[in-house]
Amino acid sequence: MAYTTIDDPSEYFTTLLYTGNATDNRNLTNDGNSDLQPDFIWLKERTGTSSHQLVDSTRGSSFAVMSDSNAVEDEDANRVQAFQTNGFQVGTASTVNQNTITNLAFQWKVNGGTTSTTHSNGATNKVDDNVLQVNTTAGIAIVTYTGVEDDNGNSPIFVHNLGGVAEFVLVKNRSQNDNWAVLHKDISASGGTKSLILNNNAAASTDPDPFDGNAGASNGVYVKGQPSAVHEVNADGESYVAYCFRSIQGYSKIGSYTGNGSTNGAFVYTGFKPAWILFRRFDAANNWYVMDNKRNPSNPLTEAIGPDRNNAEIGAAVVGAAYNVDLVSNGFKFRTVEQSHNGNGSSYIYMAFAEHPFVSSKGAPVTAR
């Protein structure tokens, strides 16, 4: 049985839906029993076309990187103004609080903004200014670092201290217009590590190899060094942010699945009832998708947003049943033949967070939706 150490996942992850009103110093409070002070917030207009805004308490609330763009870090004090005990405060920025526009905010708790600086735990080759904020209970770390040259051809490491190998990592150059680099544990290749790009739909590739085929350190991630450093993850003197995740039984799951091309589609076992799923096909060009239980409180899920594009939400009114997904007590199941979700024989990766564990720490099972 899938026992867990986290009986209430909403203490560490939640989704908030709200409608913009263009007022300053607006406090947004999380629903229900979550009582979650976020450290990482992913905001997106549902009915508008502003870019996704990713902010965190390590860099400070006024700084954002955009998942659908290679643009440098953007500063706007009127976007997210503060992280609060059960939500956050926004200003008048049109990207997050435009009047009458509906929005969503995915929120993760890390460590209340408290960071530490590491010297890569004694590693010989290391990045500079390795600052981390980590929550090992929830399997998440926010890391900032400065790229370094290594003329000896070694790959420096940035440390996350998750207590195990990071299974899903998003890295963005804050200083230059570079693509996001994405590491996922299930897209490794012999002689190198395949990676993806968050801000476009390209298939997984070893060219370039930003993580240098050796990303599985127990406490950190290796990034490509000299003489052919990959600018997206390690340019000398440039600033980076990395969001790192590992699976926590009953709370989060990072994995892969193979589609079957049927409306009685692929079932993905997670060990919990999902609240949120991110997925994409990786063996061919295809978009990223996020679906959640707040926009669709009952099955099937039909509303999706694309992290790699600034489009308004894709919903049932546009695509009918083409994107249907069911959330069940121990995973999720596709009800579509869409290549983006469930193509026959096609390969996909995912990351999911729980609404409820399948079995609580006391051994009590939960029910399906």
Mind sketching the topology for me?
Elements: E1 13-19, E2 26-29, E3 40-45, E4 53-56, E5 63-64, E6 74-75, E7 80-84, E8 87-90, H1 94-97, E9 102-108, E10 116-118, E11 128-135, E12 140-146, E13 157-159, E14 168-173, E15 181-184, E16 188-189, E17 192-193, E18 220-222, E19 239-245, E20 252-258, E21 267-269, E22 272-281, E23 288-292, H2 316-319, E24 325-328, E25 331-334, H3 339-342, E26 347-357
Antiparallel strand pairs: 1-9, 2-8, 3-4, 3-9, 5-6, 7-8, 10-11, 11-12, 12-19, 13-18, 14-15, 14-19, 16-17, 20-26, 21-25, 22-23, 22-26, 24-25
| H/E element order | EEEEEEEEHEEEEEEEEEEEEEEEHEEHE
Largest sheet entry: 6 strands, antiparallel
Report the average pLDDT across residues: 90
Question: What's the tally of helices?
Answer: 3
Q: Numbering strands along the chain, what is their spatial order in the largest sheet?
A: 10-11-12-19-14-15
Helix content: under 10%
- Structural class, from helix and strand content? mainly beta
Percentage of β-strand residues: 35-45%
The count of DSSP E runs of length 2 or more, i.e. the number of strands, is 26
In one word, what is the shape? globular
Radius of gyration: 20 Å
- In whole angstroms, the N-to-C terminal distance is 19 Å
